Amino acid sequence: MANLEALIFDVDGTLADTERDGHLVAFNRAFADAGLDWNWSVETYGELLKVTGGKERIKYFLSLYLPDFQPPTDLDSFVAGLHAAKTLHYKNLMVDPGLPLRPGVLRLLQEAREQGMRLAIATTTTPANVTALLRNSLAADAEDWFDVIAAGDIVPAKKPAPDIYVWAMQQMGLNPDQCLALEDSDNGVKSVLDSGIRSLVVTVNGYTRNQDFSGASAVLDNLGEPGVPCERISGSDMLGEMVNLHGLKALHDHVWE
Ligand code: XBP
Ligand code: MG
Fold first, then answer.
1. Residues having CB within 6 Å of any atom of ligand 1
2. Is residue 153 annotated as part of the catalytic site, yes or no?
3. Whole-model pTM above 0.90?
């Protein structure tokens, strides 16, 4: 069994609750700018989250709700243009009003850095979105905290495919038994497990709470803060009331023993 060498964080839903108040708002503003009346509700967006990737999600929406829609140009160019506009709106939302990190995220990242634990990101979202979230919600130099930021179209297949986690490990020169992943969704869990990583902590959110997290080492409501304990939903109870590096190392050793 190898020692834990890196924590690999998902972004949307894990670092911050970005979907309802970030991406959804950005999509709807981009649609309105384009003169489209496709105002997605919170409920509809929850259904569309089944498909990862914003461009892929717009196409999924069309297939479900507007199968006869005729784009003014070829579909890929039309969707790419909408998505670029959406990304601009998302970046602005990360500045004003901004989004807070989820409980325990800053505390765990700071502890990992203090103890020399390598950090990486593996996300389906667009790299510009990661930069905007990190700089505005974490720290101006937060991108430097991560050895690798694996994001968006850098890989051919998005989550639930394992590509983004495989790519991140390759970039770090690490094997699956040296990594622990933190995710929020069933797509993320499948991506992690299919990459060979078996140490996996899920922190659920409003959109993912009832999803299937089979194979996750522990499923929690969040990472906890001093005096504000996290709730264990399923899996190992080794992490206690507040997820810290000591607990993650013990969980990792247990998973791989
Ligand atoms: C979540 C996603 C992303 C975002 C939208 O990524 O599936 O597609 O919903 O961002 P993860 P884009 O949970 O892996 O961080 O529009 O830039 O794709
Ligand atoms: Mg996520």
1. 10-13, 19, 23, 52-54, 123-126, 129, 159, 185, 188
2. no
3. yes
Check: CB of residue 99 under 8 Å from CB of residue 93.
Answer: yes
Distance 67 CA to ligand 2 centre (A): 27
| Two tokens, residue 109 | 């990242």
Q: Which residues have their alpha-adjacent CB atom under 5 A from ion ligand 2?
A: 10, 12-13, 184-185
Q: What is the mean pLDDT of each run of 10 residues along the chain (257 residues)?
A: 95 98 98 98 98 98 97 96 98 98 98 98 98 98 98 97 98 98 98 98 97 98 98 98 98 97
Residue 188: enclosing H or E segment and its boundaries?
A: helix 186-194
CA pair distance 58, 55, nearest whole angstrom: 5
Q: Which ligand minimizes its atom distance to the CA of 203?
A: 2
12 counts as catalytic:
yes
Q: Are 150 and 123 in contact (CB under 8 A)?
A: yes
